[in-house]
Automatic annotation (TrEMBL):
<protein>
    <submittedName>
        <fullName>Glycosyltransferase family 2 protein</fullName>
    </submittedName>
</protein>
<feature type="domain" description="Glycosyltransferase 2-like">
    <location>
        <begin position="39"/>
        <end position="162"/>
    </location>
</feature>
<dbReference type="InterPro" id="IPR001173">
    <property type="entry name" value="Glyco_trans_2-like"/>
</dbReference>
<dbReference type="InterPro" id="IPR029044">
    <property type="entry name" value="Nucleotide-diphossugar_trans"/>
</dbReference>
<comment type="similarity">
    <text>Belongs to the glycosyltransferase 2 family.</text>
</comment>
<dbReference type="Pfam" id="PF00535">
    <property type="entry name" value="Glycos_transf_2"/>
</dbReference>
<dbReference type="InterPro" id="IPR050256">
    <property type="entry name" value="Glycosyltransferase_2"/>
</dbReference>
């Protein structure tokens, strides 16, 4: 696997000058190209109105988009196929964001996986920053709204306080140095999934990933990110309920040694591809 972010020489076209029979470079700009294929996973349930904003920001150099549909009753799947004809649609068999992401990860064919929410709160143009962190040596690129250069337009005082307290607990118990904990915009090399063995179904999935990458000794780099307001609809996140689930994950993980953790059984998914990329 090549993990290269390759600067083109002045005046070179990364498509023509860098392309070789054995290596496919994906141009990011006239001066930058990468070789690893990038998969973007988008869990969605009744997000038809938001998807146009989400897909509009996605860079055209990504390898694939995997949309995990949580049994939507609107036109979420149809809109996704109209916007990105080569989209891979995974019909979620279970419930919850964690279950949706695990199903989406299983369907990815790229070397790098990026997690993007379907509510319009994430800017797809930031993906280049995550990929840059990974090809520069990180195993896991963790988005942070509170790192220098990050920000949020969508956090109540209760959520901000809860995130700060839970982040401090994780840092203290696991030796991490996170500035943000409960944020879903992250990216990682696909092979990391073998090290973290995800096995939860709800919003606590992000916290579980953040803890297990540290416990696995993987290299983590925070990436400043700006969280925007949800454009349409209402979030399924409940601050108190989901905060307690996050706290339970933290306490459980502290008492579980990595070697003793059993891998979950494979999750069955049905995949339908719409159109031709």
């Amino acid at each position: 696997m090549s993990s290269v972010l390759h600067p083109a020489a002045p005046g070179q076209d990364p498509v023509n000058e860098l392309a070789r029979p054995s290596v496919r470079y994906r141009p990011i700009s006239s001066h930058l190209a990468i070789t690893p294929p990038v998969s973007v996973v988008i869990p969605a349930m009744n997000e038809a109105e938001n998807l146009p904003y989400v897909f509009k920001t996605l860079p055209d150099w990504i390898h694939e988009v995997v949309l995990v549909d949580g049994n939507s009753t609107d036109r979420t799947v149809e809109v996704a196929r109209d916007l990105w004809p080569g989209v891979t649609v995974v019909q979620q068999l279970g419930k919850g964001k964690g279950d949706a992401l695990i199903s989406g990860f299983a369907a990815c064919t790229g070397d790098i996986i990026v997690m993007v929410d379907a509510d319009g709160s994430a800017d797809g143009q930031e993906i280049v920053s995550y990929v840059s962190a990974l090809v520069s040596g990180a195993d896991f690129a963790k988005g942070s709204r509170f790192a220098n250069g990050g920000g949020t337009d969508d956090m109540t005082r209760v959520r901000r306080l809860g995130n700060r307290v839970l982040c401090a607990v994780v840092n203290a118990k696991f030796g991490a140095r996170y500035t943000d904990l409960c944020y879903g915009y992250n990216a990682f090399w696909k092979h990391c999934l073998d090290e973290i063995a995800l096995d939860c179904t709800g919003f606590e999935i992000e916290t579980l990933m953040n803890i297990r990458v540290v416990k696995a000794g993987l290299r983590v780099q925070e990436v400043p990110s700006h969280e925007y307001l949800r454009i349409h609809g209402v979030s399924n996140l409940r601050a108190v309920r989901d905060g307690l689930r996050v706290l339970r994950v933290i306490l459980e993980e502290k008492g579980v040694r990595r070697a003793a953790r059993r891998r979950p059984a494979a999750i069955g998914v049905t995949t339908a591809r719409g159109g031709v990329s």
